Amino acid sequence: MRFHYTGIRIRDLDRSIEFYTQVMGMKLIHRSKIPSVGGEIAVLNSPGSEQVLELNFYEDSSKYNTPYVVGEGLDHLGFQVEDLEKTLSKFSKIGIEPFVEVDSGGLGKYVYVKDPDGIWLEIYQMDE
Amino acid sequence: MRFHYTGIRIRDLDRSIEFYTQVMGMKLIHRSKIPSVGGEIAVLNSPGSEQVLELNFYEDSSKYNTPYVVGEGLDHLGFQVEDLEKTLSKFSKIGIEPFVEVDSGGLGKYVYVKDPDGIWLEIYQMDE
User: Fold this and answer.
1) Which residues on A lie below 8 Å from B76 (Cβ)?
2) What is the least distance, in Å, from the CA of B85 to any CA of chain A?
3) What is the ipTM of this complex?
4) I need a labelling partner for B43 at 20 to 30 A (CA). Which of A27, A73, B8, B77 fits?
């Protein structure tokens, strides 16, 4: 048994694909409709990473299109960067203001931003 | 920028570590308290997989210990198995009853189970 991917639910597939590719630097590797659940999925990963992110969209008519609350089950998704200052500068240019967290106690530097649905993303740089 | 891990929030760290190691076959690779947020984390992966799962626990006194609702942000976590029937037989022996989903349209066979906090896990076997 192998943990293989994380599926988040999003409310606008095009919007989320644009965010995760343009802002978060991921690559879209697959997109398809799943008629049996009335939905559509998109599968992404980051260059050089096996970690897979699946975006799950449910149409209005789908029984899985329940009211959306982000909730606490998903605490956050973690994205590692080489140079946090450079990333923050890029975010600033496109109007993304991060929530800067306190130091983790020597593990590295990190900030939080929200994805288009309000899901927290941790962007972190490990200490050398 | 590299998607590196998924952090879920859980309400009982020992209980979740036991579930993800004993039932889901993962390996605990790190556990530590994070005093700055009033919490404790555990990091796990599956043998042969780079995909990382982080369990986030917040103490009663932590400002992050907000009321817990699983929510829809995390749709599900995906676990791949070689032999779904064998996994179901193992689950049955320990009293875990899966929710069997309809066929995905030729992509494989899959079922869903809930983790101790109510987070949906997809267990799937790809077609040969």
Assistant:
1) 7, 56
2) 12
3) 0.90
4) A27
